Amino acid sequence: MPVVRDLRVLLRLRDFRNLLAVRLLSQAADGVYQVALATYVVFSPEKQTSAAAIASAMAVLLLPYSVIGPFAGVLLDRWRRRQVFLYGNLLRALLAGVTAVLIVAHVPDWLFYASALSVTAVNRFVLAGLAASLPRVVGAGQLVTANALSPTAGTLAATAGGGLAFLVRLLVSDSNALVVLVGAVFYLCAALAALRLAAGLLGPDHPPGRVHPTVAQGVVLTVRGMVQGLRHLAVRREAAQALTAMTLMRFCYGALFVMLLMLCRYSWSDDEAHGLALLGMAIGVSGAGFFAAAVVTPWLVGRMGTRGWIVACAAGAAVLVPALGLAFAPGPMLAAAFVLGLATQGAKISTDTVVQSQVDDDFRGRVFSVYDVLVNVAFVGAAAVAALVLPADGRSAALVLSVAVLYAATAALLHWQGRRDARRFT
């Protein structure tokens, strides 16, 4: 198969393999850490969780990064990306250890969230740096396949890490702190894996004798750099349109994710352990959808183009989500989780490829940080909407149908923009 052949070619590239190792270990740690937080906030017996509480937790963890995210992008275009992976993962290992101590100490929620927020903030530097570094280790003609393999493999690693966290949580009672420490070990391993990459390999390239600015100058340069980055993106219509579509699809995914949490917690189970097992199963099935997207996306992009495949992903979700989700039963919802995994990851692979191929290297870090900000704000916004709509047991036909309409509108808008642009340049 062409996909298998292309993957073999990529895996022969030593620098690509080393960058992939950093991604796999780092995102496996993310999966462990995020599941530990989710189970502590949602599935702890002493906590009576509501959709509003879930939305509040997501806002605390993700919205503050929406403020610092643009600054992260400019810093990524100024710092050696390999050093970001090294020191960022070392810092996360330390901060995860602090979080474990706070869980054991039963500190107030605000202090726990502050610690978790610190890990999440560093995480965005690392993920944006990984995306911006990929074109430095593969050729331009290999980007679609590399984007199918690398981010998807990272997502699967996060899913596997989450599975490990679920397993530890189910086998050892009251083990949230232990799970967080497992994540800290993975972060440490990711930092060590970064040492296998040459310090200057991943860029960005800077002229010799460059003088580092003061903090005040750095703030001014950051604001100016973000304006330049947005202008750079504005004239690259296809990249901007793909980012918009991905943001809308992320909103849909976030709303359905909160609904799934509430269904697992209150509707499909009588105890926390059973609900946690169902959630773990759903995440695993969604991971299978991610893997399927990695296999089929390069082939389908070759025939439909990146825009055509994003349109197909959104349109497919628009049809299948209500068909499967309105039953509010575990079996159909697991099938919907697979569909959403395939559609979301297929669209993400295509969007990453468009941005990487159309955005200049000097602007890639800040554009990918804006990308992260957009999807995080969309996810938190979706959680807030879900908190307003969802009943206590998580069953809401209105939410499912609204999400389906938004998927359909995304597909239609992107298709229309493509036809309009084609007419302008013919």
Order of helices and strands: HHHHHHHHHHHHH
Q: What spatial form do the alpha-carbon principal axes imply?
A: globular
Spans of 5+ residues with little confidence (pLDDT < 50)? Answer: none
Major pleated sheet: none
Rg calc: 21 Å
How many structural domains are formed by the residues? 1
The N- to C-terminal Cα distance equals 35 Å
Question: What attributes characterize this protein structure?
Answer:
426 residues, mainly alpha, 13 helices, Growth Hormone, Chain: A
Topology summary:
Elements: H1 2-11, H2 14-42, H3 51-76, H4 81-105, H5 109-133, H6 143-171, H7 176-194, H8 215-234, H9 237-267, H10 272-325, H11 330-358, H12 361-389, H13 397-424
Give a structural overview.
- This protein is mainly alpha-helical and 426 residues long.
- The protein has a single domain (10-201, 215-424), classed as Growth Hormone, Chain: A, CATH 1.20.1250.20.
- Helix content is 83%, strand content 0%.
- It contains 13 helices and no strands.
- Helix 10 packs across helix 13 (397-424).
Summarize this, please?
This protein is mostly helical and 426 residues long. 83% of the residues lie in helices and 0% in strands.
